[in-house]
Task: structure prediction
Amino acid sequence: MNNNTEHIEPVELLTKYFAGETSEAENTQLAEWRKAMPENEEEYIRFEKLWNYSGSDALKSEINIDKEWNYLNSKISGKEKPVFGVGRIIAIAASILLIISLGIVGIRSTQYISQKTGNTETAEYILPDGSIINLNANSKITYNKKFGEGSRKLKLQGEAFFNVTPNKEVPFVISTRQASIEVVGTKFNVKAYKHQAEVKVTVTSGKVNLSSRKEPRVKTLIIAGETGNLKKENLSVEKIELENINDYAWKTLEMSFNNADLPEVADVLENTYHISVQLEEKLKNCRITVSFENQDLADVLKVLKSTLGLKIQVENNTIILSGSGCIQE
Amino acid sequence: MTQDEHIQKKKFEELFREHFTGLCYFAQKYLGDLDSSKEIVHSVFIKIWESRNDFDWEKPAKSYLFTSVYNRSMNFIRDNKKFVSSDDAETGNLTVESSEFTDSMEISELEGKIKESILKLPEKCREIFELNRFEGKKYSEIAEKLGISIKTVENQMSKALKVLRTDLKDYLYIFILILLKNKNLL
Result:
């Protein structure tokens, strides 16, 4: 399917239209959009179906799949054939083993709490001490159930923005595979995805201590406005003074590009909107100076499109940028 | 449980989670009653589990499941005469190969997937969506009830639709095919 970028935008309009909340002017706008391309009309039909079926009476019936599975599971488990003789003894022995191992698993799973996000979602969690964590896509935090009682330790995989409740008595410590970050009370972002060569800590307010887990005593102080990069290769910490707001745009939706090349812009867009961006080779020297505040992807793409004369295609979760390239200035 | 039984159980659970909701909505179309529908769908899965060693776990099971649920629903209607008076009773003469049957199956599956997708929406988003879709509340009424702006209702509604549209991409495609086919029939 050869979708055009026009496909992203009308969701608001279509939703409003089917809900019967559009104005006359919006109705006209929608009618024009439908006529513009056959793909638009197809999208309209899909949406209409989606709208109709998502409101169908059947869906008022609540079905809790976990509950239903437990019910079925209890029914089929009760129907196992009875075991006699030696088999029975083994069965008893096995069930004792099972109870023992379940016990261990049980204890383990009750001690730790994990929260994780999928490919295209972000989530906000409030920890027992009131600290707020925004998890970016594909990320996970794990902490002890007793978090806050004497210590505030958690493990992070992936990327998260932290707004830590100040408490000088109980330091807040984040461990990633390589790095350890000690906090007093502050706001900052930690980016520690497995596939990246460095762990990036960007501090918005307050200060944190960054150290490698191998040498926990060598701490580097990162203050507001700074980014600390812990290179995985040699575990050295490098400080960059200028904060790069694009690093946590996925949470704030604020992006700023100053004569940035398109590959960099593409990276930021991927991280911010959980999509993937493909660039034509000849676009790689295109540069742009622009900033965005709280705009959705469609608007951002529109700006890129008109500024750099790009062609934009959308396929599933991938944005394909093409065009005639840019003249070196 | 042996390793093989364990794998079998896992596959069984996957099959159940994949189809249960859609099958219930399907049965509900004929029976008009969710509890009986659930019972019938459970009975089909119990049957599969009891004959698990003869069951072909590699073969797509969708048609088999829907056909079984359909047949059991018809038997249920026959055994409980009071259902015959319901409006849908005449659907009882559908043949399983007919295109009406296939369409009804696809639509039920789609409804099941939509429901699962709705259940996964963030709490607030879902509440707004359900107030609009299931209780017929206008945006302004929802805004007033929840103490939020109309703009927020609008945003949350389109957010919900965006999620559904993404989650159901594959199923909506199938639907377009049905639609085109029906157009040709006319």
Q: What stands out?
A: DSSP finds eight helices and 19 strands in chain A. Helices of chain A lie at 11-18, 24-36, 38-54, 65-77, 85-111, 249-252, 262-273, 297-308. The two ends of chain A are 37 Å apart (CA to CA). The longest strand of chain A covers residues 152-163.
